[in-house]
Design a protein that fits this description.
Elements lengths: L4 E7 L8 E7 L7 E11 L1 H8 L15 E9 L11 E5 L8 E5 L4 E2 L6 H21 L7 E5 L4 H12 L3 E6 L4 H6 L3 E4 L5 H8 L4 E6 L5 H7 L1 E9 L6 H15 L6 E4 L10 H15 L7 E6 L3 H9 L6 E5 L19
Parallel strand pairs: 8-9, 8-11, 9-10, 11-12, 12-13, 14-15
Antiparallel strand pairs: 1-2, 3-4, 3-6, 3-15, 4-5, 5-7
Helix pairs in contact: 2-3, 2-8
């Protein structure tokens, strides 16, 4: 009898989405304290793209399987597993490995997920909403009626910021291209076109006392300009990937230099990789986000769903720069009858 196999996507060399190749692996039994999860949904996110091109201070070595966040159903458990059971819903915060029909996890890396949630919606909470929530509530410590700016407001993280900012009753300005402004307005944000408008001038005119917080996922030349629109006591949170070790070092020195200025403003770098050292706040925040989704208080924006093994096409669409919100890879049983992309009604033409 032939051993069972499963399929996954592998980056065979640095470069474009075509370098994602489908490969087969033996479907083994989980080891001690390990669980096997049948993947139901995986996000296609910017860190996946950046890892494929090697644009990260700690880029994975080729070959590797991308996929930062996944949700699935526990399919088998190894000896000694006590924290979950076959049939339970589980999420995984992976960094790499999610573009696969099955994943293997240590028992202590399982993230519990309510079984009532749509996996395609819930998987957007594992990375994008988590980053937005922690930047807002753990780094910036926002409060109702605070005035904030979101730099990069239309992608997976950007729309998570918009959704959570509306829930937190914040006054929001968002930077995005003109074609995406209607989406920002739907969330109650004031849109600013980064191509034709100077956001510093607009903020100074609209909020002469400055903003309470800026959430910046772009970095680069945005940092000094974003810092300039803060009020005294305001905070700029940098959460974007610095793309290289050199740029990461430059960012850290920039944070030190700006924080030494006697103007009462603060800049903070945010990194989700700290979950490896202390999972407690992450588990607390995931539980909060799953509950908010259950209660209908947040609504992740999904622009398209693709078959799980069609990751190359989803990656190409994301790299095209026109996606608003999230793209999700899903198992065949979660697709429409014809396996087609399912578009969010708020996606612009």
């Amino acid at each position: 009898m032939k051993p069972m196999k499963y399929k996954k996507l592998v980056v065979t060399k640095r470069g474009p989405p075509e370098n994602l190749q489908i490969t087969e692996c033996p479907l083994r039994d989980p080891a001690a304290k390990e669980v096997r999860v049948k993947v139901l949904a995986t996000c296609v996110c910017l860190p996946d793209v950046q890892a494929r091109y090697g644009l990260s201070p700690f880029a994975p070595r080729v070959p590797f399987t991308p996929g930062y966040a996944s949700i699935g159903q526990v399919d088998a458990i190894g000896p000694g597993v006590a924290l979950t059971a076959v049939g339970a819903r589980a999420a995984a915060y992976l960094a790499v490995g999610g573009y696969a029909e099955y994943i293997y996890l240590r028992e202590d890396k399982i993230i519990p997920v309510p079984s009532s949630l749509d996996p395609a919606e819930a998987v957007t909470l594992v990375l994008n909403y988590l980053v937005a929530y922690q930047v807002m509530h753990r780094s910036a410590k926002v409060k109702a009626e605070d005035k904030v700016l979101i730099i990069g407001a239309s992608g997976g993280c950007g729309t998570a910021f918009l959704d959570l900012s509306r829930l937190a009753n914040l006054k929001v300005y968002g930077i995005a291209s003109k074609s995406k402004h209607a989406i920002l307005a739907d969330f109650g944000a004031t849109p600013i076109d980064y191509r034709t408008e100077d956001f510093v001038e607009i903020i100074h005119q609209a909020e002469p006392e400055g903003l309470d917080a800026v959430f910046d996922g772009m970095g680069g030349d945005y940092i000094d300009r974003a810092f300039s629109v803060l009020r005294r006591g305001g905070v700029l949170v940098e959460y974007g990937n610095p793309l290289s070790f050199r740029r990461m070092t430059r960012l850290l020195f920039k944070c030190i230099a700006l924080n030494l200025l006697p103007n009462g403003r603060t800049i903070k770098p945010y990194g989700s990789s700290s979950s490896s050292f202390n999972r407690k706040p992450f588990l607390e925040d995931w539980a909060i986000l799953f509950r908010l989704l259950q209660e209908g208080k947040i609504q992740p924006m999904i622009s398209g769903k693709f078959p799980l093994l069609d990751a190359a096409r989803a990656n190409a669409l994301l790299e095209g720069g026109q996606v608003v919100g999230n793209l999700v890879l899903v198992a065949p049983e979660l697709l429409g009858a014809n396996g087609a992309i399912l578009a969010d009604s708020r996606q612009p033409d």
